[in-house]
Amino acid sequence: MMLHIPEVLNAGEVQHLRARLDVAQWVDGRRTVGSQGAQVKQNRQLPEDAADMPQLRRIVEDALKRNGLYFSAALPLRVSPPLFNRYEGAGREHYGFHVDGAVRATPADPGWMRTDLSATLFLSEPDEYEGGDLTVRDTYGEHEVRLPAGDLVLYPSSSLHGVSPVTRGARVCSFLWIQSMVRNDQKRTMLFDLDQTIQTLRSRHGESEETLSLSNHYHNLLREWSEI
Ligand code: NI
Known about the structure:
The chain contains six helices and 16 strands. The protein is α+β, with helices and mostly antiparallel strands.
């Protein structure tokens, strides 16, 4: 499932992040990928040891923690520390089609995580740059994503994806990976649909025997399918 989650960051948070990132020292993005990625990746990343990194990460992490739609869709068990990247027009920077590694080292216990979901959080407005679409290829074809600053897209890490060349301006994003409590994308999608339907029913008609029963089913399925 691909999901657009609007307004993960508020305008003040976007502004704050951009003010810091617009004056940051960026390094070659090939530092952080394996050999396949390095052949097709041409962009810049904020180094992990940048002085601002802990505070910048904290803003993204806190925003994700308060977002109910994100929680319902991702059912996050482990989340990689957010990273930041930048593609600039002058160099026609891009990231060709690639796969994200299935496992990543993380600073938190147990030291490794599986990547079930990838997330891109947009920090530039769409009119600040040309090109730079995130393209995700799945069994239904290719999907191009270009979102307002502060919005996030969640997509399965198992899909091929890339970023088309930026031909004008600069595209700044944060990105991260999630290991979900529910590894299987189809099961996770079913749980998400069920949860959203229950919430809609509840907001329209209030709590009832039926919403209570459906909630019970939701939690029993989550109990059945989650690996914690
Ligand atoms: Ni990727």
